[in-house]
Structures are given as structure tokens and as C-alpha cells.
Write a structure and sequence with these properties.
By secondary structure, the chain is mainly beta. Helix content is about 10%, strand content about 50%.
């Protein structure tokens, strides 16, 4: 069973764009938004994925992700998802060997920018870049599965 250990933060300014090594467009939707078992379909650039996640316990939860044919992912996004959101993801290297993923949301969520960092252990130390603002880990208002209703 795969574990995801992730912390989330709001972003204070756009300086991350100049630090980014890459960016990619993401479109994702949810077949299930049940907090005990979310099921997400995602187009990550031109690649399709389906992901199942369990409820968070702090910054930790179970996660299973599988690549699927992009044509099937697009069909699921159009036919099976309760809502779809789009965002641009920027990958920014951290000073400590970890990477930050900064998501700029589009559409009705325009202006919302959230940074995430995946950690090898829940208490693993990391350095916060200057653009990192208030922590929102565990705040359901910032779960993508809840944001999709506003997209």
C-alpha cells in the first residue's frame, strides 16, 4: 500500500515561476468525492491517470495511482466525473533536495495558488521558500476534491 505524506500551503507571491524547472497543464475530475475514498481521474499533460485516496490522518493517507490510456481518461472526465478543474503545475526544487509542486488554478478558481511538498516521513524537516504562506494541510476547503465543486 502506497502512503502519501503531503503538506499544503497557500502561496504569497509569484516568485516561484522564476524558480520553476518545469510546468504542466492538468485537468482532473472526481468520480467519488467521499472523504473516506476519493477517486480522481487526471490528464497530466497528455498522460491519463486514475487515483484512489483514503481519508487523511494529519498529512498522511493511502494512495494508489495507475496510468490509464489518455483516451479513456478523457472519456471518464467527460462522462463519469462530477466536476472537472484545471490548473497549471509548476515544479520548484527545494534547498533540501525535495521538490515543491505549485498549482495555479484556472476558471472560477483563478487566483488560488496552492503549494504542496511530499515528504518521506511525516516529521521530515524541510525549508520553506519565501513564497510559501499559511499552511492549510488538513483543511478540507483546500482539498481538490472539494474545490472541484467551485470550478
Amino acid at each position: 500500500m502506497a502512503k502519501e505524506i503531503e503538506r499544503k500551503f497557500l502561496v504569497d507571491d509569484g516568485t516561484y515561476r522564476d524558480l520553476a524547472l518545469a510546468s504542466i497543464e492538468i485537468v482532473q475530475g472526481y468520480i467519488s468525492c467521499d472523504p473516506d475514498r476519493t477517486v480522481r481521474v487526471r490528464m497530466y499533460g497528455d498522460r491519463g491517470f486514475i487515483t484512489v485516496k483514503t481519508r487523511n490522518t494529519g498529512a498522511v493517507r493511502n494512495e494508489w495511482e495507475f496510468e490509464i490510456p489518455s483516451s479513456e481518461a478523457r472519456d471518464m472526465l467527460a462522462e463519469a466525473c462530477r466536476g472537472v478543474l484545471s490548473k497549471t503545475r509548476y515544479i520548484v526544487p527545494g534547498d533540501d533536495g525535495l521538490s515543491w509542486e505549485i498549482d495555479e488554478f484556472h476558471g472560477r478558481l483563478q487566483g488560488l495558488v496552492i503549494a504542496e511538498i511530499e515528504l518521506p516521513e511525516e516529521d521530515h524537516p524541510f525549508t520553506r521558500p519565501g513564497f510559501i504562506g499559511r499552511e492549510v494541510t488538513g483543511d478540507p476547503r483546500y482539498y481538490n476534491s472539494n474545490l472541484v465543486a467551485q470550478a
